[in-house]
Design goal:
18-stranded antiparallel barrel, two-stranded antiparallel ribbon, 5% helix, globular
Length: 441
């Protein structure tokens, strides 16, 4: 079914872009080139507050460098270009007994590697307002989010086409084959948490449509071959109240069902299974998840309240390679409002209430300073042979970006998170982050 859907989306985008090719204005391959060097220093401390598993505490620091080059497009009806990113991570502090568990630095023996690096080029082509890319990709889509929660970002390799030829509508489709973890230099296939097998085909297609200036609708379909099919529906509405305040409503729904090997007992026996609670303890993916949240903003204040519900069949899933290898492939993001510092609140049966308060200190004469606190409470988590479980998390963040002087643009972030859960170990985390991006071209 999906293998026929992708060509249809590509055909629609190609027809539209050819009709508008003559209207495209380009400058040049070199003239529009950009290059940046992003630097991030991160201190990571995670203290397991209970249980006897080793280590009881993870503590380390690292420095990341991300050099990105983006060319312009050659002139003409069809433009060609080339992007590239070079990543380098350097361990500042770690050691045996303090390394395992951060998901930030590759392992080397009993401790952390001294450094790690990778390089990823991306070829691109543009016709009218449609772009085709092949190579290293960092998708930011509801069905797949490249994780950037440590010193270096997670990346993927494959092909993607994005069309903006129809006013108000963005169409996206593609296929991904490999992933490089945020703490790794090696490519892996794509998988789900708990599986020992992988897939080299992640297909996706969908679109974002601005129904009005204040209302956006989304639909995406994704298929991780031999694991699952996933449909996503999203709706975001902004209601202006006055010049200083607004009410934003965000609705999200996912329907995920088993596909290929995961849908058969024989395939699951080979390792194509998902971890966590499943019906009959069979490892088959079957999940519906919805979330609704409302954010009220007034001047520098923002208050968010919401609810999320995960069905009983299995955990919510999106690609996660953490079970494939111990070489830094783990760590992933999911497009849920409950995906936070420590927990994602995406376990089978889980119902989560959450609230967040954010304040921007610019109105008090301190531009660049922001603070937030969020609390989440999850209940009704399904577990085998025990009663339903619960968990909670509280995160606090303080961010500041220098607004002037020689260090203008340098950002500092202090984060503290605490999680208590019946489904795992109680954890308290502290992170200190320094970010700076330097424009080279």
């Amino acid at each position: 079914m999906f293998n026929r859907a992708v060509p249809a989306v590509l055909l629609l985008a190609t027809s539209s872009m050819c009709a508008q090719a003559a209207d495209t204005a380009t400058h040049g391959f070199l003239e529009d080139s950009k290059a940046t060097l992003s630097m991030r220093t991160l201190y990571f401390n995670s203290d397991n507050r209970d249980g006897s598993a080793d280590p009881s505490k993870t503590e380390e620091a690292a420095q990341g460098f991300v050099l990105r080059y983006e060319s312009g497009f050659t002139q003409g009806a069809v433009g060609f270009g080339l992007d590239a990113q070079a990543l380098l991570g350097i361990t500042l502090d770690s050691g045996a007994g303090r390394h395992v568990g951060s998901g930030m630095i590759p392992s080397d023996g009993d401790g952390a590697a001294a450094s790690w690096s990778s390089f990823g080029p991306t070829a691109k082509m543009r016709v009218a307002k449609t772009e085709f890319r092949y190579g290293t990709l960092l998708p930011k889509l509801p069905i797949l989010l490249a994780n950037d929660a440590r010193v270096l970002p997670q990346s993927f390799t494959g092909a993607q086409i994005t069309s903006n030829d129809i006013d108000g509508l963005t169409l996206t489709s593609g296929v991904l084959e490999h992933a490089v973890g945020r703490a790794s230099t090696e490519r892996t296939g794509l998988s789900v948490a708990g599986s020992t097998r992988d897939s080299n085909k992640f297909y996706y297609a969908g679109g974002d449509y601005n129904v009005t200036r204040d209302l956006k609708a989304q639909y995406y379909f994704a298929q991780l071959e031999d694991f699952y099919d996933q449909h996503f529906l999203g709706l975001t509405h902004v209601l202006p109240i006055d010049s200083k305040s607004a009410l934003t409503t965000d609705l999200r729904y996912f329907r995920t069902t088993s596909s290929g090997a995961n849908s058969s007992a024989a395939g699951r026996a080979q390792g194509y299974r998902v971890s966590g609670y499943t019906d009959d303890d069979n490892g088959e993916i079957d999940n519906s998840t919805w979330a609704a949240m409302v954010t009220y903003t007034n001047g520098g204040h923002a208050v968010t309240v919401g609810h999320q519900q995960v069905s009983d069949g299995s955990n919510f899933v999106q690609p996660n390679q953490g079970s494939l290898t111990d070489k830094g492939a783990g760590g992933g993001s999911v497009y849920l409002p409950t995906d936070r510092m420590i927990q994602s609140f995406a376990r089978a049966g889980e119902q989560t209430h959450f609230g967040q308060y954010t304040y921007d200190f610019a109105l008090l004469g301190v531009p660049g300073l922001k603070a937030s606190i969020v609390y989440l409470k999850g209940t009704d988590i399904k577990a085998r042979n025990v009663s339903d479980q619960s968990e909670w998390e509280r995160d606090m963040t303080l961010d500041y970006v220098l607004q002037s002087g020689a260090l203008k643009g340098v950002g500092f972030s202090v984060r503290n998170g605490k999680s208590n859960t019946d489904a795992g170990r109680n954890v308290e985390q502290n992170r200190f982050i320094v970010n700076y991006t330097l424009s080279l071209l």
